[in-house]
Design a protein that fits this description.
There is one protein chain. The protein contains 2 helices and 14 strands; from the N terminus they run αββββββββββββββα. By secondary structure, the protein is an alpha+beta fold. The strands form 3 sheets. Strands 1, 3, 6, 8, 11, 12 and 14 form a 7-stranded antiparallel beta sheet that branches. The protein is globular, with a radius of gyration of 26 Å. About 5% of the residues have low confidence.
Length: about 270
């Protein structure tokens, strides 16, 4: 009797190990269902989920720029905060913050938005006398952790650090899009949802905080340098229920089949 019990215990352990091993292999391959949790184009005002700098401005010459139907239109949220005092370090801009709560169960998320880089962004470095106006950083944080940090440059042939992946840059070169006039005040546009930095971001909490901000020793802010976002969408990735059920059924079936084979061989 004891010998049979030991054999049964060994068989059970073997099956458990096999099941856990199969689960570890299969879980990363689960099909993901993208669940929308937030969306706004700012054309009906600023949603209450936003805080910090929440000023709306006409998109001006950005209208119609985008990818397919995802284009700038109407109003966008513009952040002109922070600035540079002569002979002093640039004052960081105040973030624009999106806070979401009661998110469904998920393992990662995606952030999609159009980004406008407005007026005389100077990138990372410049020759005198403009070297006092750098760098100009744009950062995005998720729950306080930086997921994107680059410098932008709106001068033709400039030295911004950001190299957009294919499809992200919506303006081949800096353009005059209706803000400050003059050759030193141009604009660029980006579809940041096409950058992998904003896709499949590991996240499991039921709450989410996204911060957009600009800063740097040369950050001028105000009417010299600003940025804006439009068409903000957030989705979370969760395994499709049907896939989970099929996976569990398959694992249980394999385990039971193995148990029966082991049991038959001990008789």
């Amino acid at each position: 009797m004891q010998q049979k019990y030991r054999r049964f215990s060994e068989i059970t352990k073997s099956i458990t190990v096999a099941v856990l091993f199969l689960a570890g292999l299969a879980l990363p391959a689960l099909a993901a269902e993208m669940v929308p949790v937030f969306s706004t184009d700012f054309n009906n005002g600023v949603p209450t989920e936003f805080s910090g700098i929440t000023v709306l401005e006409s998109v001006h010459g950005y209208a119609g720029i985008g990818t397919g139907s995802n284009t700038f239109s109407g109003d966008f949220l513009q952040n002109t905060s922070g600035g540079l005092a002569t002979g002093m370090t640039g004052t960081p801009g105040t973030p624009t913050v999106l806070t979401l709560t009661d998110l469904p169960s998920h393992y990662s998320l995606n952030i999609n938005f159009l980004l406008a880089i407005i007026d005389s962004w100077d990138g990372l470095s410049n020759d005198p006398p403009f070297d006092s106006f750098v760098p100009d950083y744009f950062e995005v944080r998720v729950d306080g952790a930086t997921i994107f940090l680059e410098t932008f440059d709106n001068f033709v042939g400039g030295d911004g650090t950001y190299i957009p992946p294919p499809g992200v840059a919506l303006t081949p070169t800096p353009l005059q899009l209706g803000f400050n006039p003059g050759p030193d005040f141009l604009e660029t546009a980006y579809n940041m949802g096409l950058d992998s930095a904003f896709q499949n971001i590991p996240h499991t909490s039921s709450t989410l905080t996204i911060e957009w901000l600009a800063y740097g020793d040369g950050w001028q802010g105000g009417g010299d340098e600003s940025w804006a976002i439009d068409n903000v969408d957030v989705t979370v990735n969760t395994p499709e229920p049907s896939t989970v059920c099929l996976l569990l059924f398959g694992i249980i079936s394999l385990g039971y089949s193995g148990f029966r084979r082991r049991r038959a061989s001990t008789r």
